[in-house]
Amino acid sequence: MRIMNRKSSHLTNKVNLVTANNKRSKISEEYRSIRTNFLSLIKDKESQSQTFIITSPNRGEGKTTTVANFAISLAQLGKKVLLIDANLRKATLHFSFKVSNYVGLSSVLLGKTLFEDAIIETEIQGLNLLTSGPDTYNPADLLGSTLMRTLIEAASEKYDVVLIDSPSVLEFTDSKIIASHCDGLILVIQWGKTKSNDVILAQKIISDSTKLVGVILNDRK
Ligand SMILES: Nc1ncnc2c1ncn2[C@@H]1O[C@H](COP(=O)(O)OP(=O)(O)O)[C@@H](O)[C@H]1O
Ligand SMILES: [Mg+2]
């Protein structure tokens, strides 16, 4: 799947929420097309509750942009969606949605906040957000904990789809750890930038953690 570059926009968000702000743009069409493929993929399953990690071989290849727009696109279709910022190394989803990150995933995993209390209702109907929460010194341990698994299971019962943003595969072990709690993984690759060797290596690293359900080719010119 190829995502076209955003041509022009009045957006000021750090991460472009183009799907929410310009439903008619070319890129919004592309996200709808990804959504169609994705829905046909999960339709066959008995349970409609599905958990997916979105990651990429390297940083800056479009994970956050893709997962945020994809989440919006699914919510616009009437799905109940939870978007989780599990990039505890470089959290950005709270900037995209312009919300506070005072509490979030890290606070829940540290037992400081209840999951329900950390959830934020975004301006997009049906789309809830769990931001990363304050920085911690042991992200991989937190993400590998039983509490993380329990959190994802609880989320999958409450939401139609759970999408999880994460750090890059080749940089940290976090995404491999998160992937082991998820039903599937979507790999974002940047057109003209991501090296094929990195894609192969990333696939190898995550292959025994979960199923690779799709690759999104992010065309950022
Ligand atoms: N398709 C795109 N069109 C325009 N800008 C993009 C696109 N994809 C990503 N970007 C921009 O590139 C930068 C890195 O993208 P981001 O989604 O934050 O990557 P990652 O989460 O993988 O580190 C951001 O400033 C983002 O707005
Ligand atoms: Mg990111």
From TrEMBL:
One Pfam family linked to the record: AAA_31
EC number, UniProt record: 2.7.10.2
Domain AAA: 60-191
Residues forming coiled coils: none
One MF term in the entry's GO annotations: non-membrane spanning protein tyrosine kinase activity
Keywords associated with the record: ATP-binding, Kinase, Nucleotide-binding, Transferase, Tyrosine-protein kinase
InterPro entries referenced in this protein's UniProt entry, alphabetically: AAA_dom, Bact_polysacc_biosynth/exp, P-loop_NTPase, Wzc-like_C
Xref: Gene3D superfamilies: P-loop containing nucleotide triphosphate hydrolases
SUPFAM superfamilies: P-loop containing nucleoside triphosphate hydrolases
Reaction catalysis annotation: L-tyrosyl-[protein] + ATP = O-phospho-L-tyrosyl-[protein] + ADP + H(+)
A single Gene Ontology CC term: plasma membrane
Family: Belongs to the CpsD/CapB family.
Protein name: non-specific protein-tyrosine kinase
